[in-house]
Amino acid sequence: MSDAHDKREQELFFTVASVWREERVSCPHPDILKAYLAAGLDAEASEFVKFHLEESECPYCNAVLEDLRANEDDARNEELEGVRSRLLRSTVTALRRVSGE
Ligand SMILES: [Zn+2]
What we know:
This protein is mainly α.
């Protein structure tokens, strides 16, 4: 067995636990979750959020994250819809022009 490995794990655990206590937060702010989603956090912060979401399985933050993801998808879909309907309109206009002659 490697003692060094065990020690490292204990240190990691201690770090996470003390950050937790020091910050006195049960949940990261939604803006933090947003930044996490956009990969805008530094490694340490994103580890913390990841731990909170995946190890602690916080239902609140996972729901917030779901919402943020859904909103992003909506925005993307709306954009796509806009392009599609513009394309469709110009195609229809072009077809009318052709058939009208
Ligand atoms: Zn949470």
